[in-house]
Amino acid sequence: MTDALDRPLPASDDPWAVLRAATRARVALGRAGDALPTARELEFRAAHAAARDAVHQPLDPSLVRAQLPDVELLEVRSAAPDRATYLQRPDLGRQLAAGTELPRTGADLAVVIGDGLSPRAVHEHAAGLVTALLERLPGWSVAPLVLAHQARVALGDAVGEALGARAVVVLIGERPGLSSADSLGVYLTWGPRPGRIDSERNCVSNVRPPHGLSYAQAADTVAALLGAARELGASGVVLKDEGPALPAGAG
Amino acid sequence: MTRRGTVGGHTYEFPTLVELMAKATPARSGDVLAGCAAESAAERVAAQTVLADLPLATFLDEQVVGYDEDDVTRLVLDTHDPVAFAPVASLTVGEFRDRLLAWAAAGDEASISELAPGLTPEMVAATSKLMRNADLVAVGRRTRVVTGLRSTLGLPGRLASRLQPNHPTDDPLGVTASIVDGLLQGCGDAVIGINPATDSPARTVALLELVDEVITRYGIPTQSCVLAHVTTTLRALEQGAPVDLVFQSVAGTQPANRGFGVTLDLLAEARAGALALGRGTVGSNVTYFETGQGSALSADAHHGIGGRPVDQQTLEARAYAVARHFDPLIVNTVVGFIGPEYLYDGKQVLRAGLEDHFCGKLLGLPMGVDVCYTNHAEVDEDDMDSLMLLLGAAGCTFLIAVPGMDDVMLHYQSLAFSDVLTARSVLGLRPAPEFEAWLARMDLLDDAGRVRELTADAPAARALLAAASS
Q1: How confident is the model at residue A243 (pLDDT cuts 50, 70, 90)?
Q2: Which ipTM did the prediction report?
Q3: Which of B 341-360 lie inside 8 A of A, CB atoms?
Q4: Mean pLDDT across chain A
């Protein structure tokens, strides 16, 4: 560090560029009095607006169906009746709405696509990831896909149990950040049933090509985890310890 | 013991102190989620009416979280100072609110501030539930808590800041760039505090050495902190790293602290280690704690007497009892970080920020606030501005600031460095005195004492930019 401190400033038309080049943080924005200049302020607002819209845009099943024309797709809702309730009551987002009926399939795998905190992520990435994942699971019987409104990750436990599936994979919109409003997360749970805890799941996050994981990268990891889970009859921390290493950022 | 209150001709019953406290709490989503909130506006006022008539001393005899099963309760009651409590020992909660407001209006800081060792978190929380936002501001600004290590914090007319230069990969140059950006905008007098991207001892030591190098080279009267887990900081101490402050997130129940992986003994051990380094120049406060309403609930560690859910604001105040036991330099609530299931919108976040500041100060803490929000809460910059300015008026010890409101590692929004300048200029507040003198030495202040808008070829900017160039 001492060396870096002692070095002279590089010759440059814009010495502030030194700061900007060193980090993605919003440094050297300049000032208007004691506040941000108008242009910097509007840049921030645009990023926040994209994140806000990603949270509040309703899940549009037709957008997903159009990208998966040959796949049987069922729709369910959680017990959270609207977005405001969903955001305040995560417990309701983990339960199926009263009266929900799903066929008992006995399939190896259930796949749930949930809006989560970014329906936009589902619109943009769910079909691509589902397609890539199913290609990698030739020996698996897969229940009809389930598209879930106002869903939290653990809603997959209720869906997987109702379908009688041995495992459930939940694709869900992640909480938008200022620079990533369309990130999809994938959660794998072996033996789905309500009451499963987070340490019994495996997660691959930040599926968001071209900036985050590609569909192929994510599908490779999830398929490998599913194979290991089937062998072990369990998922979560126990699998993570003995199974293949997750890619960076898979959390 | 069932207590009853009547509002609008309807009588409401509150079977336990736990329920009375919860139902008296101003509305927030976390208490609804926990199932302990008032079920109507009238029930809430009925609970507040009953609470107002409750003797303050009740909280010494009747617990919200049990003495035998929770070490936070034991800490509170075993260290209670009856002499400090004596001036208000005969008052009800409502009378105590009135007395505080009278002292505040008269500018009697001593009478308010000397109560701290005699007050329990539950007393303070109960009082806050009867207060409006302006009450919380009025009393907060007359509650004096002064601490120091290499800068003095909490003096009248001062507003300090934590410079938070987080980076997604802890890249040394990236962190340094954000530090320079903050220093050039007059931030960092409370601490230069980094949340590390990973909790490894090696990474923590590297970051500690980096910030120490910047502080030493430029003679900056402030302190550094890497907000790693306390056990990681203990490892860094063993390796001889330059640890100014021991950091830890704490909560208001023993199970919640267990969820954080901390015990009171562990905190005492780490504090002793940092104290032994003798790195202070103007004081010897060597700990830093963060808290936030909802942390106990999110860990399913929010239950009190009889297994009943305790409201999140009371539990938050109990976390302050943990913090004050270790003579902190700074404490802050991270008020909007945890999400809309605990504090739904701008109104709830603003209220909670003022409550936390008031309760912390009254319990004797050098209280700051991370004025912040996430993208799924009904909160925006305007709400943050309102809370920031109210906290400035309330005499808040310090605010947290990041480059351009955007924390690129933790993915949430806090205040910008320039927001701290706005709060100071609007409210006539100044940085910590030692840091202000340093800013002047670096030629970063104009004749009016305001932080200059610099061109890059200004000598101070050149000197600091050199630190960020590779």
Answers
A1: very low
A2: 0.93
A3: 341, 344
A4: 90
